[in-house]
Every structure is written in C-alpha cells, then in structure tokens.
Amino acid sequence: MREAPLPALQVEGIRKQFGALHVARDVSLSLPRGARHALIGPNGAGKTTLVHLITGLLRPSAGSIRIDGRDVTSLAAEQRVTLGLARTFQISSLFPRLTVAENVGLALAARTGIDIRPWGSLRRQSAIIDEAASLLQSLTLLDLAHRPVTDLAYGRRLVEIALALALKPKILLLDEPAAGVASEDRAMLLDLLLRLPDDIAVLIIEHDMSLVFRLAQRISVLVDGAILTEGSVAEVRSDPRVRDVYLGTRAHA
Amino acid sequence: MINLPTILTLLVDGVSYGLILFLISAGLTITLGVMRVVNLAHCAFAMAGGYFALGCVRYAGLDLLSALVLATALTVVLGALLERTVYRWVYATSQLGQILMTMGLVFVMIASANLAFGSSLQSLPVPAWLAGTWETPAFTLSVYRGFLVLVSVALGVALWALLEFTEFGAKLRAAVDNPRMARCVGINVPRVFAITFAGGCGLAAIGGILGNQMLPLEPWYALKYLVPVLIVVAVGGLGSLKGSFYAAVILGLVDTFGRYYIPAGGAFIIYVASGVALLWRPEGLFGRA
Amino acid sequence: MNRQTVLSSSPQAVVARALTRHRFSWVDLLPWAVIALVYVVADTYVPLGTQVIIMIIFALSLDLAVGYGGIDTLGHAALFGAGAYGAGLVALNLSTEPITGLLAAGVAGAVVALLTGPLVLRTRGVTQVMLTLAVSTVLLEVCNAWKSVTGGADGLAGFRIAPLFGAFRFDLAGHTAYWYSAGVMAVAFLFCKVIVNSPFGLTIRGIRENPVRMQLLGVSVRLRLLMLYAMSGVLAGWAGGLTAQVTKVVGLDTLSFVLSGNALVMLILGGTGSLYGAILGATVFVVVSDRAAAINPFHWLFALGIVLILAVRYAPSGLVSLFEKGAARAFGRKSG
C-alpha cells in the first residue's frame, strides 16, 4: 500500500505568547501539495503572526512546523526559504531605492546562488535576465522595470508577488494580497492567483471573501489566535459559528 | 595586596572615578536617547567647563568652588547657544551628518583650548579645606575624593528627584519613552530637549571640573575621554540615567581594580568587559530594544 | 560587449537596462590625472600626495563597510593597524620585498575582520559602534602590552624595504613610494568598482535596504556582511601596510580611535556610498589639515573643524553631491 504523500507544509500545535498575551493557541494546519487553502478571521486574530511563525521570523513557544515532512521549527528564516517556503508581506516589504528589475533580480540571484559572486554583472546572466523578463511580463510590470520601487503606488503589491514567485517556491504564503487593491484590479489579481502553478501549496490570508471563495479549496478560520474550524468552502460557509464571528460583516475593501 | 586598606582605597577611587564619568555621561545618554543626536562633542563640554574654571581661577582669582559655579553657568550658556545654532542644523540630517558636525565642533573646541591655554596638562587648585587625607584606624581616605563622592551622589539624587517629582521631569521621561506620543500630548519636545541639552552640558562641566585630578585637563581631553563616556552610555542604555549611573560606577571600579592588579593589560579590561556586556545585552543594561 | 537581442526594446533589454551600475567613465581617470600632474608640476608635494593616496585607500575600504554595507564602525583602524603591523613584521623578520609585505598586510586586515566580524555584525547602530570601538581599543592595548613582538609604545622601526620590482629604490624624495601607492590605489579602486557592480554588490545594497526581506529570500545576511567586512579588511590592511612601508615606522597610532574617527569624517565629508566621495573627502581632509598646519601650527585644527561644520550645513550629502548637482546642471542629465 502506498503511503499518502507528505504534506508540503504541516503546522502542529503552534503556541506563541508575549508575556500574558497569547497570539497563537494550539494552531494546526496541513497543506498538501497543490493546496489552495485560505486563512480567514477578524482583524487581530493573529493571522500575520502565524505567518511570521511559519516563516521563522518568530519562534513558537511550543509546537512544530514541517516542510515535506522535515522538521524546520529550529531553522532560521533563510534556511526555510531554501527549502521552498516563500511569502508576501501585507505591508509591502521591498527594496525601496532599487528598481523593480533589481528587486526581482535579487530574488533570482538569491535562488540560483549567484548572489554571492563578487565579480561580473547580473546583466550578463542571460538565464536570470530571461527569467526576470518573463516574470515581469506576466505580471505586467515590464514598463515599470526601471522605476525605483518607492516611486510605485499600486505596483508594489505585484512586485511582492513577483519576488515570491521568483523563488520558485513549493509553499507560498500570501498575506492579504488584495489589501489596498482597487476593485477594478482585483479581477486581474484573481486571474493571477488562479494561474499559479498547480504543484505549489498556497496559503492565502484574505478579507475579500469573493476572492477566497473563488480561489480556496479549504478554509481555516482563526479567531483570537485559535483555529475555530477548518473545512471545505461549503462547510465553512454554512457554519453558523463562522457567520457569527466573521462572515456576517462586510468584506474589507 | 589584598588587604583592607588597599581595597577600600581602590573602592573609593573607583567609585569616585565612576561618578565623575556618570556626571559627564548623563547629558549624553539623554541626547542620544531622546533626540537620537550623535553628539560626539559632548565630552568637549566637560573640557570647556574645566577650562572656564581654569580661567576663573587664573584671571579672576576665584577659589575652586566659586569657579565651579561660574564656569558651569558659562558652559550651560555655551551649550544653549550652540544648540540653538549649529545643532539645529543637524537634527534633521542623518546620523552621519551629525557625526561630521560634532567632530568639527570638537576640533574647533580643542583648537580653542590650545590657543587659550596651551597644550600642557592643567590642574585646578584644590582648596585647603578639601586637601589632605582623613586618617582612620581602618584606612586613609583622601578628603577630596570623599567630597567628590558626596557631591556626585547628591547631584545624582537631585537629578533623580527632578525626574521623578517635577513636571519637567515627567515631560522629559515622556519624551524619552515616546517622543512622538509626547508631542501629540502637547509636550514641547524641542524645548524640553533644548533645556535638557544645556543642563547636560552643565553637568558635564561639573564632572570635568571636579574630576580634574582623575581626568587632567588638556586640549585632547575632548577626544581622550569620549571613548569611556560613550561606553558608559552604550552599556547603560541610551536614554537611561539609571543605566548610566550603574554602568559608570561599574566601569570605574573595573578600571581601577583592573589597572591596579594587572598593570600589564589592566587598561583594556574595561573594553573587554563592555564588549561582553554589549554582546549579552545589546540595548544596554537599562535600555529599550 | 552587451549581449543584446535584435530589438533594443526587447523585454530582456529592458530588464538589463533597469539594473543600475556604476559605469566606468572619464571621471574615474581624474584622480590619476591629478596624481600625475602633482608629480610633474609640484614635486615638493609628493610626500603629501602619498599620504593622501594612503588615506584614500583607507577611506575606500571604509566606504565599502559603511557606505555600502551599512556597518557602523568607529574602529576601522583595527584593520589598518593590523595591516601596518603585518607589513612591518614581515619586513623585519621574513622579507623586505614590498609586494610580499603588502599581500601580508591585506591578509592581516582580512583575518582581523573575519575574527571580529561575527561579534561586531551581530548588532546594529550605537551598540555596533561601541563594539567596534571596544575591539580596536583592545587590539591597541594588546599591541601596547606585547612589547616583544610589537615594540609596545615605541612601535616597530628600523626595517628596510627592498627596491620595488627589484629596480626602483625607495628614495628619500618619496617618488617610488608615490607611484607605488598610486598603483595600489588603482588596484583598490578597481577592486571596489568590480564588487559594487557584481551580483554580490547588489545583494549588499539589498541588505542595506531591507535585511529582513533578504532573509526571506533565503540569503544569510550575516555571512554576506562578513564577506564584505573581510573585503574591506583587505583594503584597509593594504593602506596600513603602505604606511608602514613608506614611512618605515609602525606605531600604536595606526590602531587609534583618532585614526578611525578621522577616516569616518573623511568619508562623510566626501559622501558615502559612491566611492568618489571617499576619494574626494580624503583628499580635502588631508590637504586642508596639512596646509592649514603649515600656515599656522596652532590653528589648523580650528580651520579643519570649521570646514567640517560648514560642509554639513551646505553639503549635507557630502561634497560629491555638490559635484553631482553641478554636473547635472551643466550637462542637463543625471550623472552616474
């Protein structure tokens, strides 16, 4: 009998507290390969904190995190990235004075290990240039390639996604990718997210329910640092507790 | 070597050295902690106090304590004037700009001291009633050192009382904790800082004048003692007077005992110790991360 | 030279153009033109010129660490002094051949950087400054105490330096020293340019902009900064080694806080993060100090101080920014 394939990301019993403040209570989550999993919950529920815990910017007080079955709980953030974990930031965290192309180039250089080379020039790395060009094109960022990121308004969100995709991750954590995106552009964003490769496990944190329902297969609901419930889209939609806590309110713009 | 009289003498020497460093550092920890201004010229104000006192003694015939009062007042005025002018230029610039300006100021002050009083070491006369030693069966205490300790501790207590019990102290503490919030609450942070800056210069001057025996006066004083002062501020924690106090006293003791018991390398023990302290607690003993 | 596809506006070309770099231009030749000019026209200033060149190399090394790496240091003299003592000890005990001593000096600087880097790079801001200060002071006191090897407070002296390439004697007028230093400066400058334009250079800029994001791109920030610090150590070591070989004396002042402070001031004066700022700042600082001291031995520090204060007021991003603005106005486009 073949064993079930290991989940791409497995989070078990994560706890985190700052003094008396419990920001994560026994949180568990499992993302199989190719998953489309959404994490929803009211503001302050601890969603971004959970992402920090998974990516390694914070250490949990208890619990474990596994990537492809390998325990990474004690690994540093950069080590988890090399194992295939990538994330976007809710408030874009980019390289402000570098151009869009340089931002993406950095990510590609980091992934391919070229970033450590103290001679030559990134311009001459044709493989990287090709990949950057196609990535920027697919995100309609090519026109903005030469602009420093700090000059951009809306484009920053896309650059965030570009950086994450440049890493060719196995697991992608998207922290409110639609936040601050005008409603006309959300269709384009949704299209982008739907086109993500099938073998990437995606965890998306979002308030925009229409996006969540179109994209996700499973949903976890996080309230006050604890998982209230988890299930398929239909299950969660019809759960009265979830409606009480969250779905009754308007989606955030 | 390890007998009681020696230990007690070293103790008094170490504590008095530390307290002098505290007086000098107090202003800097607030400057760095509150307004985030890298004021490398801070030690130069201690030096200025010393030289002003020298001038009072030499040309106005004053005794040490009267000179102390007048020279401190002059240094406060100098600090206030410079704050209003050249320091205002650099509040908005980066830390590197502040380093450049304050270094320029140090050079100007060193050159001025050299011009006015020459380059040799200068000492301030100790009044007769403070000279000499106090003999007890247990050990011998230098009267001046004892006086130093008393005055420094009194000043320290007065400073603490100022912070804890006065309105100004409350405003200053608010400004240290959260400058932006303090502004929102209506505290005139620039004015609080201007007063604190001038006060800090005055304290430094007192330290420079009273500590003349341990830190002799010379034009390069401003740079020579900048390093121990910076270490006190860093190890104590930026913006923390309590931190500066403890760090200064500990540093004074470690340095004094170190130099006595390990003549060969005792001088750099404080640097190793501070390095270890900073690696253990990068934000300082009482600093905020 | 560029691998261009047929259309100059192909996506690849657009991307390639958007990767900024420090081009080599005629401006890069200016320093050597000045060096040559001084040699031809103002021979008496050659020894001063050598001093300036050595400080330029030191300032360049500091620019790598401070301007590009964002490492706050007031203890860079530790690396300079390591190079000086390294070259001096090699000349005294191993070989008087200058290039050997120079290479040893570079290695010494790199070694000290690699040993102290893990401590110093763990922190940021004021704490980092203090740690660098503590490290360089400890090194100074160690050299002070270790009389048998370093000569203590008296330092090293009395070593000879063999003729350069076996042919050019280090003459008393300092001509050989001048061109020797200029050659090292050329190598150092090239070294810096190559690093800054490389993928590693881009990574360092990224670390400067957003170290957390770099971590989340899978980059070990500390390792990269340590590499940069070591590279900076090589250059600082060369500067120290040159001082030792040119003056034939090594003292504790090569490790002093004053030297570190002066170098930082030179760099800030000229402007950080551009390499040219290091050259300009070092030149102005050393020349003003020297000329002011020659005019009046008492007031030179005063004049220097005033220059620094005024520079902050009128050229807060460094003197180089004044030139950039001037060039932009003169040529009607952004330079660099």
Keyword list:
heterotrimer, B: 289 residues, mainly alpha, ABC transporter involved in vitamin B12 uptake, BtuC, 12 helices, globular, C: 336 residues, 15 helices, 2 strands
Descriptive overview:
The complex is a heterotrimer of chains A (253), B (289) and C (336). Chain A is built from 9 helices and 10 strands. Chain A is an alpha/beta fold and 253 residues long. Chain A is globular and about 55 Å long. By secondary structure, chain B is mainly alpha-helical. Chain B has helices at 4-34, 42-60, 64-90, 95-117, 143-165, 167-177, 179-184, 189-210, 221-224, 226-236, 241-261, 269-280, and strands spanning 133-135, 140-142. In chain B, strand 1 and strand 2 (140-142) form a beta hairpin. The longest helix of chain B is centred in the first third of the chain and has 31 residues, at 4-34. Chain C is mainly α and 336 residues long. Helix content of chain C is 70%, strand content 1%. Chain C has helices spanning 11-17, 30-41, 46-68, 77-93, 98-120, 125-145, 147-150, 175-197, 199-209, 211-215, 221-247, 257-270, 276-295, 300-314, 319-331; strands at 156-157, 249-250. In chain C, helix 3 crosses helix 13 and helix 4 (77-93) crosses helix 11. Chains in contact: A-C, B-C.
Radius of gyration of chain B: 19 Å
CATH class of chain B: Mainly Alpha
Mean pLDDT of chain B: 87
Structural class estimated from helices and strands of chain B: mainly alpha
For the record, the count of structural domains of chain A works out to 2
Structural class of chain A: alpha/beta
Distance between the termini of chain A: 48 Å
How are the strands of the largest sheet of chain A arranged? 6-7-8-3-9-10
Summarize this entry quickly.
The complex is a heterotrimer of chains A (253), B (289) and C (336). By secondary structure, chain A is an alpha/beta fold.
Mind sketching the topology for me?
The complex is a heterotrimer of chains A (253), B (289) and C (336).
Chain A: E1 9-18, E2 21-31, E3 36-40, H1 47-55, E4 62-67, E5 70-71, H2 77-82, E6 85-87, H3 100-112, H4 126-138, H5 155-166, E7 171-175, H6 183-194, E8 201-205, H7 209-215, E9 218-223, E10 226-232, H8 233-238, H9 240-247
Parallel strand pairs in A: 3-8, 3-9, 6-7, 7-8
Antiparallel strand pairs in A: 1-2, 1-4, 4-5, 9-10
Helix pairs in contact in A: 3-4, 3-5
Chain B: H1 4-34, H2 42-60, H3 64-90, H4 95-117, E1 133-135, E2 140-142, H5 143-165, H6 167-177, H7 179-184, H8 189-210, H9 221-224, H10 226-236, H11 241-261, H12 269-280
Antiparallel strand pairs in B: 1-2
Helix pairs in contact in B: 1-5, 1-8, 1-10, 1-11, 2-3, 2-4, 2-8, 3-8, 5-6, 6-8, 10-11, 11-12
Chain C: H1 11-17, H2 30-41, H3 46-68, H4 77-93, H5 98-120, H6 125-145, H7 147-150, E1 156-157, H8 175-197, H9 199-209, H10 211-215, H11 221-247, E2 249-250, H12 257-270, H13 276-295, H14 300-314, H15 319-331
Antiparallel strand pairs in C: 1-2
Helix pairs in contact in C: 3-8, 3-11, 3-12, 3-13, 4-5, 4-11, 5-11, 8-9, 8-11, 9-11, 12-13, 13-14
